[in-house]
Design brief:
Rossmann fold, three-stranded mixed β-sheet, about 325 residues, six-stranded parallel β-sheet, alpha/beta, about 15% strand
């Protein structure tokens, strides 16, 4: 990648997309193309094709997606599968039709079976049933991986197509969604503990038993990993992947229980009350820890400790009313 490369970041206003833009800009990239949802509806095939024909980017980071936590996935399954499938299919195909050789698709750790062996390796994909609450979203993300693999298989040799996929663990950090019902676990906890602190509430009740294990990665670490993978030499990348197993995990390297996470968020926010658990609510997958050995072998490792990342995430929450008031 040269500084003259034209790079389209799809989803630049989202948490991951905005972090990718920050990372690219920090590396000296100035020819970054972005579009808001109002300017370009990525579910509209004709609009996406027209955009690519006009802009003809050199690289594409496909970070645009409809995302949410357990409640959102369970409540809006049709939107999660439809919108994500349409975005992936439209962007990847339009990229190919307009000569884009380098594309990076961002997936999710939920692609792996609910009871996959831990830590989850890339070859666990499609070896078991998915977590029911987010199965539609997971299937859409699996389809994105297979789209990239299929275009590589059919057009890699003849057209130089080199489309890659990275599967992040649970992400958090600046630009997150703090909606009280539709957010992921860390932003939801930040908001709830913040409101409880202001209200001097004696306790905060968390969904589930608190025993599930989760791994969390700071979003700027994810962005750095994405740019790193995008720019790896093709031969080096292929040494660590396979034509039908081309995605790479991006994880922090260790996990904690939801109870431990809640306690850590409480400390970051400064909430001093009691933390209780509603065991009648679903836990989701028992454990989700990524095996990131492939990425580590390719020269990248996470750097942001969880406690420091949570402090930065809470500062972002306090300083950005646009996210706090969602």
């Amino acid at each position: 990648m040269s500084h003259a490369s034209k790079i389209f970041v799809a989803g630049h206003r989202g948490m991951v997309g905005s972090a990718i833009v920050r990372t690219l800009e920090a590396q000296g990239q100035r020819n970054i193309v972005t579009r808001t949802r109002a300017e370009l509806d990525l579910t509209d095939q004709a609009a996406v094709r027209a955009f690519f024909a006009a802009e003809r980017p050199d690289q594409v980071y496909l970070a645009a997606a409809k995302v949410g936590g357990i409640h959102a996935n369970d409540t809006y399954p049709a939107e999660f599968i439809y919108q994500n499938l349409m975005v992936e299919a439209n962007v990847i195909d339009a990229a190919f039709r307009n000569g884009v050789r380098k594309l990076l698709f961002l997936g999710s750790s939920c692609i792996y079976p609910k009871h996959a062996a831990q830590p989850m390796r890339e070859d666990a994909l499609l070896t078991g049933t998915l977590e029911p609450t987010n199965e539609p979203y997971a299937i859409a993300k699996i389809a994105g991986i297979k789209l990239c693999e299929s275009y590589n298989r059919q057009y890699g040799a003849s057209h130089g197509v080199d489309y890659r996929s990275v599967m992040p663990t649970n992400l958090y950090g600046p630009g997150d969604n703090y909606h009280p019902e539709n957010s992921h676990v860390i932003p939801a906890l930040i908001r709830r503990f913040h409101e409880a602190k202001l209200a001097k509430a004696p306790c905060v009740t968390i969904w589930g038993t608190g025993t599930p294990m989760r791994e969390f990665l700071y979003v700027d670490d994810m962005a750095a990993a994405s740019v790193h993978v995008m720019n790896l030499d093709k031969g080096v990348y292929q040494q660590h992947t396979q034509p039908m197993l081309s995605h790479i995990n991006v994880g922090y390297g260790s996990d904690i229980t939801i109870r431990q996470l809640a306690e850590a968020v409480g400390r970051a926010v400064g909430y001093a009350g009691e933390i209780t658990f509603d065991v009648t609510k679903p836990d989701g997958t028992p454990r989700k820890l990524m095996d990131s050995a492939r990425l580590n072998a390719l020269g990248w490792q996470a750097g942001m400790p969880l406690d420091e990342g949570l402090r930065r995430a809470y500062d972002d929450f306090l300083n950005n009313t646009s996210t706090r008031n969602q």
